[in-house]
Description:
By secondary structure, the protein is mainly alpha-helical. Helices cover 72% and strands 2% of the residues. Helix 2 packs across helix 7 (168-183), helix 2 (32-56) packs antiparallel against helix 8 and helix 8 (188-209) packs antiparallel against helix 9.
Amino acid sequence: MVRGPSALLATVAVALAYTLAAGTLPDLGDGDGAVIVAGSVGLLAVAAVTLAVVGISEMLVTAVLLAIGGGLIAGALDEAGLDAGAIVPEAIFAGAFGVLLARGLLAYAGPAVALAVPVFVALVDILSVAFGPSSRLADGDPRGASALAFDLPSWGGALDGPAARLGLPDAIFLAAFATWARRLDLRPRVTTVTMIGALLATLAISVTADRAIPALPLLVAGFLLPNVDRLAALLRDPSRR
Length: 241
């Protein structure tokens, strides 16, 4: 099994190859199925890079360097108009920033943040989509998951623009929750599967309902549900951390 930096490099290479080649893949039309297929593959590419960063960021300096490098490269590519190429460095930045956020909160407030923060951000995301800027953005392009950062590429030329969009905060909290699952001795493998499944479900519901569906509430459920018993035990006895 490939581990460590080699796993990140391999994941980045595959994700970058996909994002650059997506436009040449078979045209699936412009129906919901085409949007869900292309959006799901793009979402999996973003998630894979983000979680690969979590896997090698045991040392804080690694996360700091990856956040700086990913952010600078993504900014340069965005400025050059190379949106497809920017997806991968954006995912690296999101993963590294999520690691730093998770570890900083854990050091400051202890294991309770692994319950309090997910519930809080889920509520904020619901309100933002219902009443705030996310709702207004989605009104202009109702297809896809919550908008703000990652333009997930479409296949062929049938779709006008990206297949779907995934918010940068969604990727950051995916990394943060994965970090807590690892560092708090929860169930990281099961949690990874349920969180990715939650993002895919959000995308599918968003497309088929043709309306903005906030991603963080289902992502939070994907994190909390497999770990309810262990989180409760940590809150009762923080010394188990």
